[in-house]
């Protein structure tokens, strides 16, 4: 018989299922916030300080900054596109302990910007390796890492958004 202060194996499995669902929801809020330009929703995905690694494929240095600064920097870049669509799938969550987890998830990020210099589409294919922490507000991304495996389309439209 389980004592009231002990956590049974079933309770642990249930907690992990609930945690996985919440982590998955955060990943989906990240994509939805970006594509809908809902920067409050986007901000709700992060711890107060976040490490961002978009060095692979984009040449940006790894940064550690306030999440509010990350959102303020991301918003105008994404808003410079006519439309974006981020699809996040194949999410695999592993737990380090009760309050820390990693989620590896495929991403296909489409960017649309009609222009006079070439195609108006650019797509990134790759995966996120995001480190999560449990906070008072629930699970949040503490480290965001995008690994770009390949890209198609006019990369120039993405460069325009980064300037």
Automatic annotation (TrEMBL):
- Membrane-spanning residues where? none
- What Gene3D superfamilies does its record include? 3.10.450.50
Residue ranges constituting the SnoaL-like domain according to the UniProt record: 15-144
What is the top-level taxon of the source organism?
Bacteria
Q: What InterPro entries does the entry give?
A: NTF2-like_dom_sf, SnoaL-like
Pfam family membership, one: SnoaL_4
- Name by which UniProt lists this protein: SnoaL-like domain-containing protein
Species this chain originates from: Nocardiopsis flavescens
Q: What is the lineage of its organism?
A: Bacteria, Bacillati, Actinomycetota, Actinomycetes, Streptosporangiales
């Amino acid at each position: 018989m389980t004592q009231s202060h002990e956590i049974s194996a079933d309770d642990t499995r249930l907690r992990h299922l609930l945690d996985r669902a919440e982590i998955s929801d955060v990943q989906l809020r990240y994509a939805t916030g970006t594509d809908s330009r809902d920067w409050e929703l986007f901000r709700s995905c992060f711890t107060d300080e976040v490490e961002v690694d978009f060095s692979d494929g984009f040449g940006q240095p790894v940064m550690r900054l306030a999440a509010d600064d990350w959102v303020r920097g991301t918003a105008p870049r994404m808003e410079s596109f006519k439309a974006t669509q981020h699809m996040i799938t194949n999410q695999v969550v592993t737990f380090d302990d009760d309050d820390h987890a990693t989620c590896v998830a495929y991403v296909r990020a489409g960017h649309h910007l009609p222009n006079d210099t070439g195609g108006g589409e650019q797509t990134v294919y790759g995966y996120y390796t995001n480190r999560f922490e449990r906070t008072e507000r629930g699970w949040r991304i503490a480290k965001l890492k995008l690994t770009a495996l390949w890209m198609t389309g006019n990369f120039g439209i993405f460069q325009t958004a980064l300037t």
